[in-house]
Design a protein that fits this description.
mainly alpha, three-stranded mixed beta sheet, 16 helices
Length: 355
């Protein structure tokens, strides 16, 4: 048994994950609203004192250490590769401890009660009529909210205080939304710009939440019309909303209730994109019809977002998407990256609840 001790952390993590999956109500009360809420707020307040991303710095240092280790083994010659079974056991042990820590500091939030239940929303499968009506309402709202917004020389939405300033305004939206939706409440929210944002653009990543440092990291290379929603999405992860559809919906709520018009528009724009995508899956002709109803200004914003994605599309983005898809599936999101679009179910459920 001692020879198998290296696998104990991994087995413990898998057992914890399985047990949590059978008790979402216990996870909700004991972890998400209890241990995690207290831990995350303190961690975010602490790391928020630093203006740059500690997670990004730690990853860079780890990469350099790995390269130095590989270089050292290469210099020592072929004999340095001996003892690989021991190294493999060490790798399994380290990976097990890392996964167990991930679950305990954030990952168990994947197993908490669904957001629809917490918000008392009727999230039964939507009819085509409901999907079409929701899409139409969101397209109309985006057209209306785009009017009067600042633009750059190409007629694309321009954030008044720049991309870095946009991140400083995320907390105002969460503060405004928390009174109505306590699930997004909390303290000390400071999304941080990713120094290597250009690299993340080639990977097709608009942001990433670091559970070990409590930091919402945002790709500030993204176009202005996309940035407010992306920043709020990563900040929603910090609030314990691990599932991608729920983080998307929370970002939409926060943007919608934000005191600033560019955030309100960005949230509705993103929601309308997901809704049109869902409609296209049911009827491409109707989806094209909704796209044709975009105002010229909204159409310019969407063209800028598509151009940014197309400019960086390549093998790196394809691999990154496959990795993200596998990760999400491993955490119980069986639709993988398609789960982002499931926010449309919550948007429709919200319309059902409206008086």
């Amino acid at each position: 048994m001692r020879r198998l001790a290296f696998a104990a952390p991994l087995l413990a993590a898998l057992a914890l994950r399985a047990a949590a999956g059978r008790s979402p109500s216990l996870v909700e009360r004991g972890f998400s609203r209890g241990l995690y809420a207290g831990f995350a707020s303190r961690l975010t307040c602490l790391t928020g004192l630093v203006p740059f991303s500690l997670a990004e710095a730690l990853v860079a240092l780890l990469a350099l250490a790995c390269l130095a280790g590989l270089a050292g083994r290469y210099r020592r010659g072929p004999g340095a590769t001996a003892g690989w079974p021991r190294r493999l056991r060490r790798l399994v042990a380290v990976g097990g401890w890392a996964y167990l820590a991930f679950l305990l500091v954030w990952g168990l939030n994947y197993q908490r009660e669904p957001l629809a239940a917490r918000l008392a929303l009727d999230a039964r499968p939507a009819t085509f009529a409901e999907l079409e009506a929701t899409t139409r309402a969101l397209v109309d709202a985006a057209n209306r909210m785009r009017e009067g917004q600042a633009e750059d020389a190409d007629g694309v939405l321009a954030l008044a205080d720049g991309r870095r300033g946009c991140l400083d305004r995320v907390a105002a939206g969460f503060g405004a939304a928390a009174g109505r939706y306590p699930v997004v409440g909390g303290t000390c929210l400071r999304p941080k710009p990713i120094f290597a944002s250009a690299l993340f653009s080639w990977l097709g990543i608009s942001g990433i939440y670091s559970p070990f440092t409590g930091e919402a990291n945002v790709n500030v290379d993204a176009p202005d019309p996309d940035l407010p929603f992306s920043a709020c999405h990563e900040a929603a992860h910090q609030r314990g909303l691990a599932r991608e559809d729920e983080a998307n919906y929370a970002a939409y709520l926060v943007c919608r209730l934000h005191p600033d018009g560019d955030f309100r528009y960005a949230g509705v724009l993103a929601a309308s994109q997901y809704a049109v995508g869902a409609l296209a899956g049911a009827d491409r002709g109707r989806a094209r019809g909704e796209e044709s109803r975009r105002s010229p200004a909204v159409a310019r914003d969407l063209a800028a977002i598509r151009a940014w994605v197309d400019r960086h599309r390549g093998p790196a983005m394809a691999v990154s998407e496959r990795v993200n898809d596998a990760y999400l599936r491993s955490q119980g999101q069986h639709e993988g990256t398609r789960s982002y679009g499931r926010m449309v179910d919550l948007l429709i459920a919200e319309r059902r609840a409206a008086p």
